[in-house]
Design a protein that fits this description.
32% strand, 13-stranded antiparallel sheet, 7-stranded antiparallel sheet, alpha+beta, Anthranilate synthase, 27% helix, 471 residues, single chain
Length: 471
């Protein structure tokens, strides 16, 4: 079968449909993944794991997952598999579904070989840690939504290649159907986003007061650090174009762990720069927590000065080190003895609107354990909770006036071969039934200045506000 072209929807020669064990692969001409995703953007369970940063190794691959063969949802205190309630916690249910998946595959051209794709909301942590959840999610908003996919699109940005991949007999048939619809797609229209102004849930004065309370907890010895955040909200218009907003945000703030997720009760529009944790099929683990932020500037001299000041900041480096220690502990719960390392501590990385300090923690998963065990050990991410984690989560629950929902959770994939990659859901816009929400915050430590924390939070939230305002 000929390779299906991505330019203009026609056919081009040069590739062939072939089988690699239980996997069928169709090469297609490379195109921007957002163009390929457009035909499914308005459908439930359509998910784009995007990475519009081709110069970044972590942004090398992108995936499109639509039309799952199974679904797992945790909503309204029920765990549903394919719409039917099960007497399992969501993590156990996910593990059971993965255990029933096709056999591990070989010779796949990308790290993801088919499997689970979806969103873990921050409040899902209540199934792991004994932390309070004072603020319930709105009715119908899931705390977890995972689809299992045996057919998907994959893109290698560095090599400039793309494929449709089907796993097993059903996956091959689904892949053929996806290809037919892909070929018939229409050109992307220009982005037009209605102006939507979001207001902060806390006033500046309320924010400063609550940050001061966090500092008082730190000085009293309760914690070393807590990540305090603020929601910005607006009523959701009937004509809200989530995919259009994603296209705008993607242009304003390209990021290696971006995602567009549409599931029942929730839309996630993310331009996340942060990896939560990854796992290779042979057991190599990597976390990349972000702690430490300074703004970018149009003037190169000023921009360089901002980066140098961040790199030399005692406060920001201490903030990063605390979270590195927390994640070393979390990963150490499931790592083989002696394998946990920190190859990079507070490395400087620059993104579209900010500079960040990013550390790297690695380890080797113990034999007999898998990706769900790793999630149980580390979720929610330490960079968006604080240290010690459980006490920080208690203080967050006390001082933040609303649930976080998808924000500070994770969009992830877990392959049939046991590999996994995941982000931290930051720099993100969320649409639920009645509201459009974005959220931002930062790590508070003993020498934090509340006004400086407000300024940093506003810097982080600006791309999302601009994407919604249509500026």
């Amino acid at each position: 079968m000929e390779a299906l072209g991505c330019h203009g929807g026609g056919l081009t020669l040069g590739g062939a449909w072939f089988s690699a064990g239980l996997m069928s692969i169709t090469p297609i001409d490379y195109c921007d993944p957002i163009e390929a995703f457009a035909p499914w953007a308005e459908e439930f369970w359509a998910q784009l794991l995007d990475s519009p940063t081709p110069d970044n190794e972590r942004g090398r691959y992108a995936y499109i997952a639509v039309q799952p063969y199974a679904t797992l949802v945790s909503v309204d205190k029920r765990c549903l598999v394919n719409g039917s309630a099960v007497e399992l916690d969501p993590f156990t249910a996910l593990q059971h579904l993965l255990q029933q998946s096709p056999e591990p595959l070989t010779d796949c051209p990308v790290p993801f070989t088919g499997g689970a794709v979806g969103i873990l909301g921050y409040e899902l942590g209540r199934h792991i840690e004994r932390a309070p959840a004072r603020h319930p999610l709105p009715v119908g908003q899931p705390e977890l939504a995972i689809g299992l996919y045996d057919a998907f699109f994959a893109f290698d940005r560095v090599a400039g290649k793309a494929w449709v991949i089907g796993v097993g007999g059903r996956g091959e048939e689904t892949a053929r159907k996806l290809l037919r619809r892909f070929v018939a797609r229409q050109p992307l229209p220009p982005v037009t986003v209605a102006k939507l102004i979001l207001e902060p849930e806390l006033t500046r004065e309320q924010y400063l007061e609550r940050v001061t309370q966090v500092i008082e907890y730190i000085r009293a010895g309760d914690i070393f650090q807590a990540n305090f955040t603020v929601r910005f909200m607006a009523d959701r218009p009937e004509s809200f174009d989530a995919f259009g907003v994603y296209r705008r945000l993607r242009g304003l703030n390209p990021a290696p762990f971006a995602a567009f997720v549409r599931v029942p009760g929730l839309i996630v529009v993310s331009a996340s720069p942060e990896r939560f944790i990854s796992l290779s099929a042979d057991g190599h683990m990597e976390a990349r927590p972000i702690k430490g932020t300074s703004p970018r500037h149009a003037d190169p001299v000023q921009d360089q000065a901002s980066a140098v000041a961040l790199k030399g900041s005692v406060k920001d480096n201490a903030e990063n080190l605390m979270i590195v220690d927390l994640l070393r502990n979390d990963i150490g719960r499931v790592a083989a003895i002696g394998t946990v390392n920190v190859p990079t501590l507070s490395g400087l990385e620059s993104f579209a609107s900010v500079h960040h300090l990013v550390s790297v923690i690695t380890g080797r998963l113990r034999p007999g354990l898998g990706p769900v065990d790793l999630l149980r050990a580390c979720f929610p991410g330490g960079s968006i909770t604080g240290a010690p984690k459980v006490r920080a989560m208690e203080i967050i629950d006390e001082l933040e006036p609303s649930p976080r929902g998808a924000y500070c959770g994770s969009v992830l994939w877990i392959g049939f071969d046991g590999a996994m990659d995941s982000n931290i859901v930051i720099r993100t816009i969320v649409a639920i039934r009645r509201h459009v929400i974005t959220q931002a915050g930062g790590g508070i430590v003993s020498d934090s200045d509340p006004q400086a924390e407000w300024d940093e939070m506003m810097t982080k939230v600006q791309p999302a506000l601009r994407a919604l305002a249509g500026d």
